[in-house]
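Archive entry: two folds, one per protein. Generate the first.
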Amino acid sequence: MTAAGDHLSSLDAFRGLAIAGMILVNNPGNWNAVPESLTHANWDGCTLADVVFPFFIFIVGVALPFAFARRIGRGQERGALYGRIVRRTIILTALGIVLNAAASWPDLAATRIPGVLQRIAIVYLAASLLMLHASAAWRAVLAFALFVAHWAILTLVPFGGHGAIVTHDVNLAAYLDRIVFGTHMLTPVGDPEGLLGTLPAIGTALVGTLAGEWMRTAIDERRRVAGLVFGGMTALAAGLAWATVWPLNKPLWSGSYALFTAGLAAITFAACYMLIDVERTRAWAKPLVWLGVNPLAIYFASELVRNVIDREIGGAAAIKVRVFWDMIGPALDRFGAEWASFAFALLTLGVWTAVAGLLHWRGIRLRV
C-alpha cells in the first residue's frame, strides 16, 4: 500500500453530501411544515439539520493538507500560498455579503453582516495559516484550547450588567454581536454565525486538518479507516460527555457540539472512503461527487436563486408560489403538509444536482 495521493473521490462525495444537506435544509416548500429532523434545534440539542454546517467546516479542514501538498509539490512558494489564502478569504466574505444583500433587497440598509460564507472565510483563513505553520500536535492542542476558551468566556465572564449567564436571549455571544453588528444580524437577539462562535468553528476545521493529514500519510487503507473511526468515536464520546454540563448548541457552537459533530463527520468520511476509494463502489456516489466538485458555486447559486423565486416579479406571483403552492402542495396534500414541503426540497436538490452534473460533464470547476 502507498500513501493517499493529493485527491480522494470520497472527499468530493463527502463534501457533496454536506452541500446536499444544506440545500435540503434551506429549501422546504413550506417553512411551517418541515420534518423535525430538517429543522434546527431552537437552542440546546442537535438535529440532522444541525450537523450539516459543521460537516462542511470539518471538510474545509480535511481538504487543506491535500491542497497545500499539491501546490507545494508543484513548486508554489509560501508567498503565493499566502496570496491565494487572503484572496479566497476576501472573495468568500464578499459573496456572503452579496447573498445577504439579495435576501434583504430592496432594503439594503437592513443587510445582515455575518453569514455562512463569512464564517467559512474566517475559518479557512485561520485554519490555512495554522496548517502551514503549526504541527499536527500543536493544532490538536489549539483546537482543544479554542473549545475550552470559548466555554470559559461564555460561562465565566460577566457582561452588560449581567453575571456570567448563558440563555437563549441573554448570553455574551449575542451581547457582543449586538455591539458589533447592531441590527445587521439574523435575529434581534443575536446571530448563529456571530463572532464568538467562530472560535470553536476554527477548532472544528483544525480537527479536520488532523483527519486530512492522517489520510495523506497513513500508508495502509485499513489504518486510515481505523484511525478515522477511532478518532471519530473518541471525539463523539468526548462531546457527549461534555454535553452533560455544556450542552450541544449550534447557535453558540459549543465545544461539546463541535466535538460531537466532528466525531460524526470523521466516521461519515471513513464510511465514504471505505465504500468509494477502497471498495470502489462509486456509481451510487456520482451525484454527490458532482456536487462536491463545485460546492461553493452550487451553494451560492442555490441560495441566490432561493431568494429570487420567493419574490414577486413585475407584479406576477413568485415562482415558488406557482410551483409549490399551486402545483406540488395540492398534488401531495393527501400525504401531509410535511411530505409536500419535503418534496419541494427534494426537487430543488435534484435541479442543483443536475446543474452540478452538467458542470462536471463539461469539465468546469468554479473556484474562488
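Generate the second and append.
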Amino acid sequence: MPTLVKEMDPNLAYMFCIVCRSQGNSKSPLTRDGTGAIRCGFGHGPFTLDQLMNSDMVPATELFVEQPTITDVKKQVWVNPEVWARLERKFANRFMITIATYLAAIADDSIVMITGEQAGKLRALGITNGQQILSTVEMAKQTERELDESNKTIQKFMGLIAAAQAPEA
C-alpha cells in the first residue's frame, strides 16, 4: 500500500547554490541548463564537481511529499492529541505510509504486538526490533537443542560407565 511520489525531474540537480548560500539565500536550487551545465536561477555557475560536492543537497522531505494512493480512502479516527503529535514528529514526512502499513499489517495478522511492561523488559535487554527478537529466540532454541544433545551424550557415557561397572567418582 505504498504512497505515490512524483517522478524525479532530470533537469533538477537537487542541490542548492553555494554562491547564493554564501550571500544569505540558502534555498536557491541548482538546475541543468540546455548544455548540461549546472547553474542556479540567478546565473551562478557552471560549477565544478568539487564545488558541487560542497553544496547542500535538497532534503528528501522536500522532494517526496507523501500522497495517498488512488485506492486510499480518508477515514476519521479518535486519537489522543498528544499521541497524534508524537506520531507526526516521530514519522515526519512518512506518516501516511507508516500508518497505512501498520493498519494493513493489523488487518492481515502479520504483526505481533508487544507493549507496556513486555516492551520495557525487551528494551532493557537491548532488544528494540523484531529481527533482534527473532534472532534471540532462534539462539535460545539452538542452545536448547545443544543442551539436549549434551544431556544425551552424558546419559550414553553414564550407561557405558555403568555397563563397565566402574566405580563412580
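Annotation attached to the second fold: DSSP finds seven helices and three strands in the chain. Residues 1 and 101 are 7 Å apart (CA to CA).
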